[in-house]
Amino acid sequence: MEMKKRIHLELRNRTPSDVKELVLDNCCSNDGKLEGLTDEFEELVFLSTMRVGLTTVANLPKLKKLKKLELSYNKISGGLEVLVEKCPNLTHLNLGGNRIKDLSTIEPLKELGTLRSLELYTCEVTNLSEYRDNVFKLLPQLIYLDGYDKDDKETSDSDTKLYAEGWEYGDEDEDVDEEDYDDDDDDDDAPSGEEEEDEGDDDEEENEEGALSGEEEDEDDLNEKEVDDEEEAEEDEQDWGQKRKRELNEEDEDDD
After folding, report:
1. Which residues form the U2A'/phosphoprotein 32 family A C-terminal domain (predicted)?
2. How far is 148 from 154, CA to CA, in rounded Å?
3. Is 60 exceeded by the pLDDT of residue 170?
4. 50, 49, 58: which is closest to 77 by C-alpha?
């Protein structure tokens, strides 16, 4: 796919000034030059053109906010002074896999005071004697060369943020993570469906127990009432028997 067409597809009905990240990897550049990029991409902070056949970056538009530029696996052999003029705030530059043979080719990069990470892996320049020491001397602003600092300590995620500081895409990702974290907390606080079911079952059991208790109480009351009625009947019967006995005695006395 041609680079111009790829840029058109990447815009997705946006204007160039709305784009902050543009990935054009593996598309085709005519005559080894950048095509379709203009100064209208003024908000661009990340640009990737890996394996597009570039031989020069001369056509690069002025991108004052560009922080990270990926140019790996192209055919660039010089002309890097353009980057100083066009991308003055660059922090990360990947030139790995290009045709860079000597230190003089990268010397213009010393004017990029914000540059923190440079990658030159598989370039011929990496075969020079004391390559790493000489690059750090030539570019004192560098923190990482090919992913390692002067003490051969490998770059970490936190260190990556250091040289990409101010890259708005990174800030937006952090905001999203915080929102996701808050949402997760809310989900943890909310009762699950199983817990709600368990609570419903507990309520049903309590209702059943309450109903059984009520039935048992009614049965107890009924039994107590029957006992009271029986006792009252026995008392009435005893009273009637005593009364009848007195009447018979009185009749005997009258007969005498």
Report:
1. 128-146
2. 4
3. no
4. 58
3-state secondary structure of 94: strand
Asked whether residue 185 is domain-assigned, the answer is no
Single-letter amino acid, residue 150: K
* 162 and 36 share one domain: yes
Do 149 and 69 have their domain in common? yes
Instruction: Report if pTM > 0.70.
Output: no
Q: Shortest CA distance to 49 belongs to which of 66, 39, 40?
A: 66
Residue 91 domain boundaries: 3-166
In this structure, what token pair is assigned to residue 255?
Answer: 């007969």
Maximum distance among all alpha carbons in the chain?
161
> How do residues 60-88 score in pLDDT, each as one tens digit?
999 999 999 999 999 999 999 999 999 99
What would the DSSP string read from start to end of the chain?
Answer: -BHHHHHHHHHTT--GGG-SEEE-TT-B-GGG---S--TT-TT--EEE-TTS--S--TTPPP-TT--EEE--SS---S-THHHHHH-TT--EEE-TTS---SHHHHGGGGG-TT--EEE-TTSGGGGSTTHHHHHHHH-TT-SEETTB-TT-PBP-HHHHHHHTTT-HHHHHHHHHHHHHHHHHHHHHHSPPHHHHHHHHHHHHHHHHHHHHHHHHHHHHHHHHHHHHHHHHHHHHHHHHHHHHHHHHHHHHHHH-
Yes or no: say if 69 and 93 are a contact pair by the CB < 8 Å rule: yes
Q: In the chain, how many domains are there?
A: 2
Q: Which has the closest alpha carbon to 92: 73, 62, 69?
A: 69
122 and 49 belong to one structural domain: yes
